[in-house]
Design goal:
This protein is 35% helix and 22% strand. It is α/β, with parallel strands linked by helices and 341 residues long. The protein folds into two domains: 140 residues, ornithine cyclodeaminase, domain 1 (2-Layer Sandwich), CATH 3.30.1780.10; 184 residues, Rossmann fold.
C-alpha cells in the first residue's frame, strides 16, 4: 500500500481536512503559474501511470440531453500522485453563438486519499484545455518524431493550445497549417498564438489544402453520433499521422478502419462509446493504448509508410494529476477561497 503520510502532512498544513475545502475559479487555476512545460511533464506522468497500470479509472459515462452535446462524469485515482477525484464536464458547441459563453464548462473535485474528505473544487475548463493538447503532442512525439509539418482542424480554445504546444515535442517542425470553417477564428488564432510559436502558421483555403500539406494532423471539433467525414478517406496517404480529439466524428471512419494502427487513450471508453452508437460502421481494431506507448511498452512509429490514427478523447487520470498539481501550487501560494463543509 502506498504511504500517503507525507501528502497528508502537506495538506494538513494548509487546509482543515474534513472541515473545509478550497475553491478555485478558472482565473485562479490559470494564476497558480503552471507553465506549458510543466503541464507536459504532468501529462506524461499521467499517461505513464496509465500505461503501467498505476491507476484506477472506469470508462467515462455521460448523458446527452441533445444530439450535439454531452456531459461526462470522469473519476480516477493515481496513487503515485496522491490524486483521486472526479471531473463533471459539459460540452455545448452552440454556447458561444447562442449565449456568449464557452463551449466547455465543468468542475473538478479532489479528495484526500486517506480519509476521502473533499479537499478542493475547481473550475475544469482551463485544465481540460491544457491537458488535451499536451496528450496530443506527447503522442505525436512518439508516432511521428521527424514530422516537419503539422495541421490543426478547429481554431477554438483547443486549437490554439495545440498550436502552442506542438513545437515543444516535434523538434523538426517547420510549418503549421490551420483550418476552420470560421475564418475569423483562424485570424484570431494567428494573432494570439504567433508570438509564442517559432514556426510559420498558415491559413488553409479548405480541408484538402491542409491534408495535402501536413505530415501530422489533429482535430478538435465536435463529437456527434453520425460521423461528419469532413476529410474523405481517399485524401489520406501513406505515412500520415492523425491525432483526433473528436472520437469518430470529424474524419472519415474508413480511414480509422483501414489504418495500419488504430491507437486509443482508453479501450474501455471507446468500447462504451461504440456501445452507445458512436461508431456506426464498427469500432476499428485497437492496436494499443497511448499510455502504453508513452511508457515504452508498445512501439511508436515503426515504418515511414504507416498510416496511424490515434484517438485521444480525454482521460480522467490526466485531469486528476493536473488538478492535484494546481491544488498544491494554490495551497503553497495561498490562492483560492476556503469553504466550510
Amino acid at each position: 500500500m502506498t504511504d500517503f503520510s507525507t501528502d497528508r502532512a502537506f495538506l494538513s498544513e494548509h487546509i482543515a481536512i474534513g472541515k473545509e475545502l478550497l475553491y478555485l475559479t478558472g482565473e485562479e487555476c490559470r494564476g497558480v503559474g503552471l507553465t506549458r512545460d510543466e503541464i507536459l511533464i504532468l501529462a506524461h506522468d499521467a499517461l505513464y501511470a496509465h500505461g503501467t497500470g498505476d491507476y484506477e479509472m472506469p470508462a467515462k459515462i455521460g448523458v446527452h440531453p441533445f444530439d450535439d452535446v454531452l456531459y461526462h462524469a470522469m473519476p480516477a485515482y493515481v496513487p503515485s500522485k496522491a490524486a483521486v477525484g472526479a471531473k463533471w464536464i459539459a460540452c455545448y458547441p452552440r454556447n458561444p453563438s447562442e449565449f456568449g459563453i464557452p463551449q466547455t464548462t465543468g468542475l473538478l473535485m479532489l479528495n484526500d486519499v486517506l480519509s476521502g474528505c473533499p479537499i478542493a473544487v475547481m473550475d475544469s475548463a482551463w485544465l481540460t484545455a491544457m491537458r488535451t493538447p499536451a496528450v496530443t503532442v506527447l503522442a505525436a512525439e512518439k508516432l511521428h518524431p521527424e514530422a516537419r509539418s503539422f495541421g490543426m482542424f478547429g481554431c477554438g480554445v483547443q486549437g490554439r493550445e495545440h498550436v502552442r504546444f506542438v513545437t515543444k515535442t516535434l523538434k523538426n517542425l517547420e510549418s503549421i497549417f490551420i483550418y476552420d470553417v470560421d475564418e475569423e477564428a483562424m485570424d484570431a488564432l494567428i494573432a494570439q498564438v504567433s508570438p509564442d510559436v517559432p514556426v510559420s502558421i498558415t491559413k488553409c483555403e479548405d480541408s484538402r489544402d491542409l491534408v495535402e500539406s501536413c505530415d501530422v494532423m489533429s482535430s478538435a471539433t465536435v463529437i456527434l453520433k453520425e460521423p461528419l467525414a469532413a476529410v474523405p478517406d481517399d485524401w489520406i496517404t501513406p505515412g500520415q499521422t492523425i491525432l483526433s480529439n473528436d472520437l469518430n466524428t470529424f474524419w472519415d471512419p474508413r480511414t480509422s478502419l483501414r489504418a495500419d494502427r488504430y491507437i486509443v487513450d482508453s479501450r474501455a471508453s471507446h468500447a462504451l462509446f461504440a456501445d452507445m452508437g458512436y461508431f456506426p460502421e464498427g469500432l476499428p481494431e485497437i492496436d494499443c493504448e497511448t499510455g502504453a506507448i508513452i511508457a515504452g511498452r508498445e512501439p511508436g512509429r515503426t515504418s515511414a509508410e504507416e498510416i496511424i490514427v490515434c484517438s485521444n478523447i480525454g482521460m480522467a487520470v490526466c485531469d486528476m494529476v493536473l488538478g492535484r498539481a494546481i491544488l498544491d501550487r494554490a495551497l503553497e501560494k495561498n490562492i483560492g477561497t476556503r469553504l466550510p463543509l
